[in-house]
Amino acid sequence: MTMKNMLMWDETLFRDLDTFEIDYIPDQFNYRENQLRELAFLIRPGIKGSRPLNAILKGTPGTGKTTSVKKIFADIDSIQSKLLTVHINCQVENTRFMILSHIYRQIAGHNPSAAGNSYKRVFESIADILLAEDRVLLIALDDANYLLFENELNNILYLLLRSHETYPGTRIGVLVVISDMDVDLSRELDIRVSSVFSPTEVYFPPYSVEETFQILKERVMQGLYPGVLSDKNLDIIVDHTLRSGDMRVGIDMIKRAGLNAERDAVREIGEEHIHEAYRISRFLHLKYSIHALKREEKDLLRLLTEISRTEEQMTSGEVYKVVKKKLKLGYTIYYEALRKLDTLRLINLEFRDGRGRTRLINLRYDPDKILFYLK
User: Fold this and answer.
1) What values do phi and psi take at 224, rounded to 5?
2) Looking at the chain, which terminus has fewer C-beta neighbours within 10 angstroms, N or C?
3) What does the pLDDT look like over 73-112, one tens digit per residue?
4) pLDDT digits (tens, 9 = 90+) for 238-269
5) DSSP for 31-93?
6) Are 249 and 284 in contact (CB under 8 A)?
7) Which residue ranges form the domains of the chain, and what is each CATH number?
8) In angstroms, rounded to a whole number, what is the distance separating the alpha carbons of residues 346 and 366?
C-alpha cells in the first residue's frame, strides 16, 4: 500500500462523527411525509389552545417513529403557541413517578422540590403550571411497550388523560410510540383508560431496499468525506440492515466500519471493516434492551444464562425453584420479569404440551453475548 493511500496520524475519515449517533436528528428526513402530515393534523388543536388528539405510533424498531416525533416537536417549539411538548424515553423513565418528574423538569426547568415527593404531588405541581400559564401539554411516551409491566402504562395514561376531572381546565394529549408489533393496546389498556384515550393509529412501515440505501447514503454524504465508502460497499451495509430490520444497525455499522478503517490508517472503508463492524452492530438490540432492564430483571437474565449452560431444556416451573432460592423473588415478580424478557425478545417463552401453565424458556442470544452486555 502506498503512502498516498495511507491515513496520516492527524487525519480522519469523518466529516461529522455525530451524524452516526443513535439519537441524531438528520436535517433531511425523507419517506415519512404522510406520517408527519397525519401527526400535524392530530396535534393542530393543541397549537390553537385546545386538547390535541391522541395517537399511537406503531412500527418495528428503526422505522422513523422517534425522529418523526422529535422533528414535529422541534417545529412546535420554534413557534409561539400555548402548546408545551415533552418527549419521554420509556426505556429509561419507566415508572409513573419518573415520567412525571421528567415532565415537571421539562416544563419548570428544575427538579421537583422535595426529595421523596409522591407522584400525586408532582402531578399537582404540573397541573398548577399548566393552569397558571394557560398552557396545553403534549406528551410522547416513546417505546411505551416498556411500560406494559406492573400496569405502569395504564397508571400513567389514566392520570394524564383524566387530569381535567381532578384539575378542571387542564388540557393534555398523549402520543404512545410502540415498537413491538405483537402488542395490542386494545387488549392491554383498562376500560377506564381506553374510554378516554380513543387514539388514531399512525403506522410506520419498514423501509424498502431503495429507501434504506438513500437514507444511509445521506448519512454517508453528511458524516464521511467523499470517497471513503463506495456504493458497492454501502450495498453490503444495506443488506445487513434489511436483514436486521432496524435502520439503527446500518447507521451504527457505518460508524464502526469507519473507525475500523481509521485504525488501519487507510482512506477507504473495505469489506473487512464492514464485516468486523457487523459482528458488533448486530447486537444493538441486545445492548439497548439489557440497558433498559431493572436490577432484578438483569439478575434473572444472568441466572437464565447460567442455567442454560447445564440444562438442555428450561421450564418456568423448574427455573422458579432456583430463582426462589438464589434471588429471593416472589412468583408474581418472577413471572412479570419473565414476561418482560420475552416481550423484549431476549428470551422465547412457549407453552409446553400438557397440563398446567409451565412454559419452555429459550435464550434468543448466545449466553456469552448476554453476559458481556450485562457487565
Assistant:
1) -115, 155
2) C
3) 999 999 989 999 999 999 889 899 999 999 999 999 998 8
4) 999 999 889 999 999 999 999 999 999 999 99
5) S-HHHHHHHHHHHHHHHTTSPPPPEEEE-STTSSHHHHHHHHHHHHHTS--SEEEEEEETTT-
6) yes
7) 3-22+207-282 (1.10.8.60), 33-203 (3.40.50.300), 294-374 (1.10.10.10)
8) 10
What is the rounded CA–CA span in Å between residue 115 and residue 151?
24
Give the three cell numbers for residue 349: 417463552
Q: CA nearest 98: which of 73, 117, 125, 70?
A: 117
Cell of 131: 393552569
Tell me the whole-structure pTM to 2 decimals: 0.87
- For 322, counting Cβ atoms within 10 Å of its Cβ (0-12 exposed, 13-18 middle, 19+ buried), the class is middle
One-letter amino acid at 310 equals T
CA 330: distance to chain centroid? 29
Query: Which of 184, 90, 88, 168 is CA-nearest to residue 128?
Result: 168
What separation in angstroms does the CA of 363 have from each of 2, 257, 278, 292, 356?
48, 29, 21, 18, 22
Length of the chain: 375
